[in-house]
Specification:
The chain has about 625 residues and is an alpha/beta fold. About 40% of the residues lie in helices and about 20% in strands. A 13-stranded mixed sheet has the order 1-3-2-4-5-6-12-24-18-17-16-14-15, with helices on both faces. A six-stranded mixed sheet has the order 20-19-21-22-23-25, sandwiched between helices. Strands 8-7-9-10 form a four-stranded parallel sheet, sandwiched between helices. The chain binds alpha-L-arabinofuranose.
Length: about 625
């Protein structure tokens, strides 16, 4: 029996690798996919970079507790004890034991990304808490670390007041994306919004003692800070101890993690040892829940779950220390009747939008949610009126696809004052106060733009002469237009052979795509090599204009688009389009899950990002019959 051998091997190697099986080794029989009770089916591998920090221990606790609820699943843990090469080895070992899914938390993104990409080719991978580079994983669950840094900077500015403060930053592991992103968010906000300066950065490697020693050395050299920002609470505590030993008083300290345990951030704030912390959930519980869904092949699962950070200071720490009263988001009070969702759809501008509307209607029916869906006919003013009407009707939740990024403060403040949670569907907004909305469900539009650009780079790798591009953008100031432009530019700007002739603003409609392409052909004629349209409808309009002009779309002019609707697939099949990036409109089920969670008092993530693919002419053939929209 292969498995019995594996288990014996595991027990022998257990101490060397810090490897533990959870859930009863003796009962496990993977070769038969059933144990004596006929239950055990899945083996999950969990790889940690270290298990010596309180945050990782909390993650481990959550995973163990959650896995205990699933009789048919077992877990193997490995702890690399802060040795990146060891973690690579651990992952190889887990693979050789025949795991069905890997959950991995990463300290060194550069070293670990290649091995995780390899594993992802064979089994599903959940990246937890600390990220890898790129998109080679099934699901990422973690906080928005940059936002975390922004929030910490805002609090630093508040704590320092009018004086020109001097700040020391205590970083986590230099190689970790989590540390990099927190630092970026903190620095950007400090530089943009204050006169304070970050005078020194020290590397605490997430560890209390290391932070304490490094800071002591620095302070002894005569550096005088007003505030210390540490990327975790353990290092914030180290900073406090360094200051105490040197009898330096009056320095503000901000940490991150916000655990409720001995020496955890919440208790440190309560005791006045540090001034603020940010609860950054580990995601351990969600990781197991999603792992089970992935193993059971539940359709429509997201690509990224961005968990909510909570700011904790002296003024609100007590509510977080009291169990059950610890969320800053509005929940829905349970009612006798069905829960009422008001959805302000932006319009009917595209095939994508029609599929999106259908998905919301059918998911609401299935979930037993009373849906009031109103269409704003692509007018922001009308969309605001609809939201105001929903507030008047006292619906339980409001969701909407914002036409543009700007201009929502007033109406969202009205919804907030009425205690109605707002869910942003498919498009994000620009508002200073992030508590005006509860959650975002949709795509990563910047990544979509990057994918479009990457295809062009790879398709033209043998071309040395300039390639002239026409861009047909979506609605001005809408999130998909802004982000898709940014992502595409990011990639093509790396090579001067890509030359953007002109960008037109096409409003996501077929007619506008056709109109602007006609105009482009009039101006540039056969000079045009490539059209990059921000959605399929505009690409289809452009194709029509190119044909009318007497050229062959897909051959004389390459067509790159976004959405991957069935109509785009037809064009790919006919060779008129070259590449489309999927943007998933089927957001209904995730939206209804969020609404139900709000009703059940379950804190919903800050952002739920959908999983998406890309299709060239060849790949589209395989997918054609499966296309749902
Ligand atoms: O916001 C999503 C975009 O809006 C889709 O890509 C486009 O087709 C739609 O109109």
């Amino acid at each position: 029996m292969r498995l019995r051998k594996v288990l014996i091997k595991l027990m022998i190697l257990g101490t060397v690798l810090g490897l533990i099986i959870f859930g009863g080794i003796g009962e496990f029989s993977k070769s038969q996919k059933a144990n004596s009770l006929g239950q055990v089916k899945y083996l999950i591998g969990v790889s940690y970079p270290n298990l010596n920090g309180p945050w990782q221990l909390q993650m481990n606790k959550e995973i163990k507790n959650e896995i205990a609820r699933h009789d048919d699943t077992r877990v193997i843990f490995t702890d690399a004890a802060q040795n990146d090469e060891q973690q690579v080895q651990d992952i190889h070992s887990l693979m050789s034991y025949g795991i069905d899914l890997l959950i991995v938390s990463v300290d060194n993104a550069s070293t670990l990304t290649p091995v995780i990409s390899e594993v992802y080719k064979k089994i599903p991978v959940i990246v937890l808490g600390r990220g890898v580079k790129g998109y080679d994983y099934t699901l990422y669950i973690g906080s928005d670390n940059q936002l975390n840094g922004n929030m910490a900077a805002k609090e630093a500015i508040r704590l320092l007041g009018n004086k020109r403060g001097q700040i020391i930053e205590v970083e986590g592991n230099k190689e970790s994306l989590q540390a990099e992103e927190r630092s970026k968010g903190f620095r950007e906000t400090i530089q943009r919004e204050s006169k304070h300066s970050i005078i020194e950065t020290i590397n605490g490697n997430w560890l209390k003692d290391r932070a304490e020693d490094e800071l002591k050395n620095l302070l002894k050299s005569g550096v005088k800070p007003d505030l210390i920002y540490a990327h975790n609470d353990a290092m914030a505590l180290g900073a406090y101890q360094a200051l105490k030993q040197l009898k330096i008083e009056g320095i503000k300290i901000i940490g991150t993690d916000g655990l409720n345990e001995e020496s955890g951030g919440l208790r440190l704030v309560k005791q006045g040892i540090i001034d603020a912390t940010y609860i950054t959930p580990t995601g351990g519980t969600s990781a197991v829940q999603y792992a089970i869904d992935i193993l059971h092949k539940v359709p429509g699962l997201p690509k990224k779950i961005i968990l909510r950070n909570h700011e904790v200071t002296k003024s609100n720490v007590d509510s977080y220390l009291t169990e059950g009263d610890n969320s800053s988001i509005p929940f829905i009070k349970k009612k006798e009747r069905k829960i009422k969702l008001g959805f302000a759809q932006v319009g009917s501008e595209s095939e994508w939008r029609l599929a999106n509307t259908d998905s919301i209607i059918s998911a609401a029916k299935e979930a037993g949610v009373e849906l009031i869906l109103k269409n704003a006919d692509y007018s922001q003013k009308k969309q605001m009126d609809i939201i105001r009407d929903f507030i008047k009707q006292k619906v339980d939740v409001i969701a909407f696809s914002p036409k543009t990024e700007d201009g929502w403060e007033e109406v969202l403040m009205e919804a907030k004052n009425a205690g109605i949670p707002i869910i942003l569907s498919d498009r994000e907004i620009n508002v200073e106060d992030q508590t005006m909305w509860t959650s975002f469900i949709g795509s990563d539009f910047v990544e979509e733009g990057r994918r479009a650009g990457k295809w062009l780079v790879s398709d033209s790798k043998l071309t040395t002469t300039p390639l002239h591009i026409i861009e047909i953008e979506g609605t001005a100031n809408s999130a998909p237009a802004v982000d898709r432009k940014q992502g595409f530019n990011e990639i093509i700007q790396q090579n001067s052979k890509f030359q953007l002739l002109q960008s037109y603003s096409g409003d996501f409609t077929l007619d506008q795509g056709k109109k602007w392409m006609k105009q482009a052909l009039k101006t540039y004629g056969t000079e045009i090599d490539v059209v990059y349209a921000h959605n399929d409808d505009m690409a289809l309009g452009a194709i029509k204009a190119i044909e009318d002009y007497g050229l062959k779309p897909g051959v004389d002019i390459k067509i790159i688009s976004i959405d991957a609707t069935i109509k785009a697939f037809n064009s790919l099949k006919l060779g008129k389009m070259n590449f489309t990036v999927e943007c998933n409109p089927l957001l209904g089920p995730q939206l209804m899950k969020a609404v139900k969670d709000l009703e059940n008092g379950i804190e919903i993530p800050q952002k739920i990002i959908t999983a998406e693919e890309t299709f060239d002419q060849k790949q589209s053939k395989k997918e054609f019959s499966r296309r749902a929209y």
